[in-house]
Design brief:
Elements (H helix, E strand, L loop, with lengths): L18 E5 L5 E6 L6 E2 L2 E2 L6 E7 L5 E8 L6 E6 L4 E8 L3 E7 L5 E5 L5 E6 L2 E6 L8
Length: about 140
């Protein structure tokens, strides 16, 4: 049985929602636009989010959160873009007009590079979760 196209009788001018969920052909959520955003699903389990956010979240074919574009609902009012592995953030950009910005690239084995202007400009490299390079050398570690 074929599916026929449907013509809209009128075009809505505005749609107001708290949450919009897009699912794939199997019913797995793949995109959520929400305010506030739901807690993340990591390896099939719902986990507590570190803080409340609002924005657009993307999910993989198994329904695990794999990143998003969001604003933080705390006094910092920051904005972030993340791309996640199946169990950790591997690419994060965070911006806050009052305190600066941070770019963080990480592997699941604890290697990473962070560039930040948060409080003071710094470049930090980690191998196996240990800081191997920090510039300026006397700057505090980026956590």
């Amino acid at each position: 049985m074929g599916v026929r196209g449907v013509e809209a009788q009128s075009v809505p001018q505005e749609l107001t929602l708290r949450r919009l969920t897009i699912v794939d052909e199997k019913g797995v959520q793949r995109v959520v636009i929400a305010a506030p955003a739901p807690d993340p699903i990591v390896q099939g389990k719902r986990e507590k989010r570190q803080g409340e956010i609002a924005g657009i979240l993307i999910y993989d074919k198994d329904g695990n959160e794999r990143g998003g574009y969001a604003t933080v609902n705390d006094p910092s009012n920051g904005a972030m873009l993340t791309l996640d592995a199946t169990d950790a953030q591997v690419f994060t950009v965070y911006a806050n007009a009052a305190n600066g910005a941070t770019l963080s690239l990480n592997s699941q084995k604890g290697d990473g590079v962070t560039l930040t202007t948060w409080n003071q400009p710094r470049i930090q490299m980690r191998q196996a979760r240990k800081v191997v390079y920090l510039q300026p050398a006397d700057a505090p570690e980026v956590r």
